[in-house]
Amino acid sequence: MAKKSDLLEQEMRINYPYGMWTCTDGEQILFNRKYQPLNDKERLVENIDKSKEIFFYDDGSCPWDGTRLFDEYKKKLEESNIKHSFKIKQVL
Predict the structure, then answer these.
(1) Contact 90, 16 (CB under 8 A)
(2) The model scores a pTM over 0.90
(3) How far apart are CA 45 and CA 4, in angstroms?
(4) Measured between alpha carbons, how far is 74 from 90 in angstroms, rounded to an integer?
(5) Confidence label for 8 from pLDDT (cuts 50, 70 and 90)
(6) Cα dihedral value 55, 12, 91, 20, nearest 10
(7) Inter-residue contact 30 to 17 (CB < 8 Å)
(8) So where are the chain's domains?
């Protein structure tokens, strides 16, 4: 049986933003830890014309590793100027 922390990590890696691409036309695409688009799941990554890439966490600041890191993650998302809504539920 998987531990709760392992399930949380899997959930966040797949369903929560790891980063965001800004395309040359200004479109913003959130992507998960597997670099799969979250807000346009039908789109192929290789067809995205990326001009900028930002990340909301890295291996040293994974949001599932504690409340402080999750709060830092949420703050980065709020400050990233995402043009579409993405609700982050408190999971820790």
Answers:
(1) no
(2) no
(3) 31
(4) 9
(5) confident
(6) 30
(7) yes
(8) 4-79
